[in-house]
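=== RUN LOG ===
request id: a7f3
mode: sequence -> structure
chains: 1
length: 143
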Amino acid sequence: MAFFGFGKKEKDKMKTGLEKTRTGFWGSIMNTLTGSVIDDEMYDDLEEQLILADVGGEVAVHLVDKLRDRVRDKGLKTGEQAADALRDIIAEEMTPEAEMALDGKPAAPGCALPPPERQSRRQPLPPPAPAVPPGSRWGHIQK
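=== RESULT ===
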């Protein structure tokens, strides 16, 4: 019995498609870097490949800028070394900056409720509206 319409055939097809996407993304970047001379043209080609891989323009520029810095700082000479450096940069960028708490509490203080010092400064609710005065047009509704 297929779960949500996914039988073995569909799962294999999806797995194959995702594999193509993964190898296509990294494969095109490796083709750009492997055997390349590290120069402005290589950086431009890499930026283009990252944008085509749908990482977004801002992220592509950020990754290429970090790679330029890493190549300069470490004195990298080959495209293969640049590819390894890019792999490390992507891994670093995807690593959370702080440890993630899994205790069910809000990640940032005050997400669910304002901090206690702010709660005391809240304005009280306005008093309820006065009852309809007797003898008014709507007075007959009162009990």
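=== NOTES ===
The chain has a mean pLDDT of 75.
The two ends are 64 Å apart (CA to CA).
=== END ===
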